[in-house]
Amino acid sequence: MDVSYDGLELESVDEFEPEAVARMFEQFLTASRAPYNLSRSEECAEHPVVEDVEDDDACVHCKMKASVHLEDGNYVCTHCNTVVQRFLDHSAEWRYYGHDDTKTADPARCGPPVNELMPSMGSILTATGQFRGSIGSKMIRKYQMWNAMTYRERSLYSVCDVLAVSATRNGIQPVILEEAKSMYKRISELKISRGENRQAIIASCIYMACKTNGVPRSIKEIAEMFNVRVHCMTKACKTFQDLLNVSVVSSTPIDFVNRFCCKLNATETFSVTCRAVITKACAMELLAEYTPPSAVAGCIMLCSDAMSAGISKKRIAAVCQISVVTISKCYKHIRPFADVLLDGK
């Protein structure tokens, strides 16, 4: 059997000889790729041949550098059309299904991105359109979501809802909320808690996340936020550190100044003065026997009297969540050093 390709005569083979047929097929492939096979002397300047096939920009087949490009979800070599690698996009993906009907509803659906905390959430559908707010649609979504999750993910999902509601009500930033969720998942995998202890563990995750991000809150604040006792909250924080084997840096009075002054609607000048007073008082070791919120409350009271800001002691106590008696003690302790702390203000 005589075969030719593009003017190139191939050897004659017997159709019953497999080895000859294979040899002819190899000649055919060589002839078809001949225009693209470059020798070392004919190497292209724009696409040099590289020896290191592990280069990200080089094709693993033809070894041409800077020839691999992303096309339709695949990394394809523009020189030999080889699919080098497939690309997986983990972001949200929209699909529209309204081309084949005449309905006015938009049946587009979006699959949410992969959630590291709850992997099953990647298979839950979010519907949009005319019937997305109906009772039946909500029930179907809830049923589908509930069945798609494992028992651990259902429990974690309810805890994430509690954290999200508490964070929204109390002005906690989303980055702190996400870190608290991650912390709780790690703790729940190490120890099972129930009742008030479980609620205290959830609160301790918010407490530690706030500390880690440089915006600490007092234990009493977090305990009231989640309606748990301060004793249980303190115990949960100790359990948190033991389980995750972490050591948290103690809070300082300067960490609470901006938030307390903001709640008191104080001016920027007043806030700057309070920070300066607290910094000097800490350097002089005048506030060592007081907790950071108590020290801040006493310094705010001192600055209010010196600058005639008109901030009452009861208002400071309500914002800082410190008793009036404690504020009075701290104020009397630092009052003799007012000239040094205020520096003539």
UniProtKB/TrEMBL annotation:
Residues 171-239, 251-334 form the Transcription factor TFIIB cyclin-like domain. GO terms for cellular component: nucleus; transcription preinitiation complex. InterPro entries: Cyclin-like_sf, TFIIB, TFIIB_cyclin. GO terms for biological process: transcription preinitiation complex assembly. The keyword Amino-acid biosynthesis does not apply. Coiled coil: none annotated. The keyword Nucleus does not apply. Keywords: Initiation factor, Protein biosynthesis, Transcription, Transcription regulation. Gene3D superfamilies: 1.10.472.170, Cyclin-like. One of its GO terms (molecular function) is TBP-class protein binding. SUPFAM superfamilies: Cyclin-like. It comes from the Eukaryota. Signal peptide: none annotated. This is Putative transcription initiation factor IIB-like protein.
